[in-house]
Records
---
Amino acid sequence: MIYGLATAVCWGLADLGAAIVSRRYGSFRTLVTAQAGSMVPLTLILVFGLAPPTGPLGWNAVSVIVAGTFATLAFYSLYRGLELGPVAIVSPVTAAYSAITLLLAVVLLNEHLSSLAAVGAGLTIAGVVGATAVPRAVHRGDPEHDPGRAGIAYGFLAMGTFGVATFLIGSAARTLDWFVPTYLSRLATLATILVVVVVIRIRPRRTPATPHEPMRWRGLLAATAIGVADAAGLMLFSLAGHKGMVAIAAATSAVFPLVPVAGGLLLFGERPTALQLSGVGIVIAGLVLLGLGA
């Protein structure tokens, strides 16, 4: 349970930090810096020989590379959604990616779906529907041109792409342990980002960019901390799995959206409707049941 709660704190702070940094410095710059920062603890594990042994990559290499590409879109969608939309809604919607991963595992890998997990998946989907109802109720700015709607749409995109990326990494981890699929997928994510950066610099800019502050050393440190927190949460969760406590860790870590939800309410003054808050609660309850039923 301690590993799960520590994971929840890390992932929750990462989401809340992403909302703060993305709104100040822009989602793409946050993405680049955070993903580079996430490689720091993973690389230290590799350098100091703490990574678990693994077998030959084979076709799993293709899976983790594709997963890294999906993860690039997923992280950008998450950061963009947190920049534009209500944090109290976007983060729980994104967290529902585990239901997508579970469904893919059942359909493509013929894994067994327990009754508890099935109930959790159903609650998660129902909660997402409730949480995203009437997005104008938490608008920021002009209600006629509410960016919150776009933010929630990015949250849905992040949910789907995280679901696919996590499924691909998980399927590769069945034969390669946890470290190599995670590390290679993050390398693929960074490589994809570098390609995008090169393309952006080569192509002429046709529309003016959204005004953001220059990302100086404070912004770089903050964005790096987001990536480190995300990677730390992943390693804590994996350590719990190594100790045979996957279900407990999954259930307790599923409450991580509570951190950005509280941040959205207290720091950004968001005011979701009662239906939306109920949906957020149902999402978190569904994620807990998914973890217990896994």
---
Amino acid sequence: MALDVDAERDKILSDLKSAGQTAEIYWLDGFHTQLQGKNGGGDSWHTDGRLGVAVLTAISNASAATNYPGLP
């Protein structure tokens, strides 16, 4: 069974969107021309060739300090 790298890509983008961390998500069709192959361990993989791009939202220093204690 080939690894579905698109499922991993889509999960990351979905998680970022669900967390309210994206200003925009867009797709670049045909970004990858090689749609299947094998990784360094010999496992097969496949992709639809699209690149998902997430534009992340900016957070203020005050928000970062509140939500992520310990950051400088």
---
Amino acid sequence: MENLLYICERELYRLDMSINFKKSCCMRIGPRCDAVCANITSSTGSVIAWVSEIRYLGVDFSRFRRFKCSIDHAKRSFYKAANSVFGKIGRIA
């Protein structure tokens, strides 16, 4: 996995781009999702963290034996905003 990261870093460096390691993370999905994994380090010495949940574009992905995602947080935020608007309008609409 580190070799793949090194190759990606090298290509991005040639394109004058870089990876933001503060916003990057790893998660394992599958039968061995509970296994402890070694840290992945970049060529600059930054470490990519292993996490149990990732939120990407409003969808939550969880570490589980099967692929599992949830949009509960996005739905909750939408209904919260909608109820706020309806509360301000009242019975006018």
